[in-house]
Recover the amino acids of this structure.
């Protein structure tokens, strides 16, 4: 049997959810974890190590046929070291950099002619964007970390002195809503997108997604999927990527890229013929991609954030009794306030009911409501 | 966190496929394997031991909250020993015996008024059933083992002398087709069935299933689901069970019971809101059962049997390219001729096309056809 061995750097919930299609596909799967209790290490073979240490990562990689990542924090130097040693790493460092460095990403979007918000690199000079504006530390941020709303020149100056590195400044768009398009691409250059997903945020954290985006025009839907495919091609993506997008009227603006399975694609586990996790494995192994068609008119996903309740088992029993068609995904993570500890998904045709039930379920699990 | 720990005796493909919803549900899951390379041991935590040894099994059980089985071969004495020691075992020995002893099963079906083929216990006396008839060794058989077509008295006598135990004799029904109804039941007595599945056999091995049974009358469909619920209630089932049934015209006859996830329920992984594997976990943990509704008009499953090809990776790459909506399940088992090494499923609305593609896929993987 020549079934390949995949190794994932990182052992959070994304790696945990990737283990599932790996089992179905018969692919040997292991994760590079920080501690044995990491989310994915609970359910898959693992090696303990430090992902910033090229020696550790290289030793892990030598037992695998392909290496991939589940987060943006693996240093580019480590990825390039693996590549230099002949390890097959996907996405490649040259692609992954657009996920790790937001300034590079803006330059690339401009180069391929996709709509950016107004932006500039800031190194202490003149500011061409109206305040309030968004300032981003180009590297190391995720889930809203490293992103600041800046009201005036003084605040900008003080942030710049604090971070001691160039900043990415962006206009603060008064957008109508945010969407995400998941796209997959393989070394053979086969590519596929799923329908665009509405991402509903609260305090910078995604709380619910709806796929497809309700009431989106055919033109916009086609344009954003086409944009995602163009980006995938332009950056030589291998794997899956989330393209986060702002929508203003009938226009769209690229927000961020994440070159990995993404929270906005979790709906695809139940809602699509092929989940983003299976597609990522197919892509990095250069297998033909699976069908991205939906199995129901709508899929609604809600993130379960840690709240007051520490025992998630009882609420979950209650919710199962209430809705037999609610799908649960527990990440096996310790409950901490605001931490993503799981998600729920429902598929069906009555969008309002699906949203109502998913909202109820996450609020009940987090302890926001009692019944 | 009080998420329960489930232990499965046996580590074949059924335990492997049960590991997947366990991960999603956040349930700690481990298997009792014979060797580390067993199908489920490749993808889940495991303990090595001998399932006929009560001491080994008891040690395993003490680290779990609930114990279940994936095959009928665990000795009743071992199950009863666990129960005596206060271990929560589902299904219970009193239920499981109907899966392990076909004579007891026939008696029970007669007791609850469900249609049996003509049958009798044979201990060397008169035979009331016309030859050719079916003779079954009541215990220890599965997948057609221990089942014989007997043409005359001499053959019966020689079988009886060989097995040295009572036999179950059954009329050889000239049935139109075989179906299976999966049913789940929890300690709270919540119960649910899925639509009946057509099981297409070749040489006593199931090769393909179609759900729901095409062209089945509403009356028959309702009757067989109702029969499955009655059996579940009568034998105090906890977990899932396959009720295998012969159909003759508008009549049906109970064939066999399997008190575990079953090959005829594999379609439910993609075809139903809740798979048989998730439902089994929900049932044995006394969680509310999930919805058994289908997510597409038809689900077709084909078993991949080992053939001439030993490398299953290349054919699978070819098939993925041909049909992006084909779902693969590899069991990680060594290829041996005739052995079930995986299955494929497709869901959709064009039944003939689904059957054509699934047949092609399994024939191609087994090496029966070359393109």
């Amino acid at each position: 049997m020549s079934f390949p061995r995949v190794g994932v750097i990182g052992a959070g919930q994304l790696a945990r959810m990737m283990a599932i299609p790996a089992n179905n596909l018969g692919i040997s799967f292991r994760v590079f974890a920080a501690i044995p209790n990491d989310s994915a290490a609970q359910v898959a073979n693992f090696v303990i190590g430090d992902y910033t240490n090229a020696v550790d990562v290289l030793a892990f990689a030598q037992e695998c046929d392909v290496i991939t990542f589940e987060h943006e924090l693996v240093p580019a130097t480590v990825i390039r070291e693996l590549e230099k040693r002949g390890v097959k790493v996907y996405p490649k460092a040259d692609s992954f950099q657009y996920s790790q460095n937001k300034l590079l990403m803006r330059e690339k979007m401009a180069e391929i002619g996709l709509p950016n918000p107004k932006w500039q690199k800031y190194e202490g000079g003149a500011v061409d964007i109206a305040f309030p504006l968004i300032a981003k530390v180009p590297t190391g941020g995720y889930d809203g970390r490293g992103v600041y709303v800046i009201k005036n020149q003084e605040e900008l100056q003080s942030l710049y002195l604090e971070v001691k590195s160039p900043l990415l400044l962006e206009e603060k768009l008064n957008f109508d809503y945010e969407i995400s398009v998941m796209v997959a691409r393989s070394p053979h250059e086969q590519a596929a997108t799923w329908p665009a997903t509405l991402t509903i945020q609260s305090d910078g954290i995604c709380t619910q997604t709806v796929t497809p985006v309700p009431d989106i025009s055919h033109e916009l839907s086609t344009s954003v999927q086409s944009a995602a495919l163009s980006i995938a091609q332009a950056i030589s993506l291998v794997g899956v990527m989330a393209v986060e997008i702002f929508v203003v009227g009938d226009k769209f603006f690229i927000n961020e890229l994440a070159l990995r399975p993404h929270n906005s694609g979790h709906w695809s586990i139940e809602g699509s013929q092929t989940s983003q996790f299976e597609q990522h494995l197919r892509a990095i192994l250069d297998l033909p991609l699976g069908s991205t068609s939906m199995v129901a008119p709508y899929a609604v996903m809600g993130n379960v954030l840690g709240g007051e309740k520490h025992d998630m088992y009882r609420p979950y029993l209650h919710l199962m009794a209430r809705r037999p068609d609610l799908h649960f995904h527990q990440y096996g993570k310790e409950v901490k306030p605001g931490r993503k500890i799981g998600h729920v998904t429902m598929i069906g045709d009555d969008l309002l009911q699906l949203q109502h039930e998913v909202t109820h379920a996450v609020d009940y699990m987090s302890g926001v409501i009692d019944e």
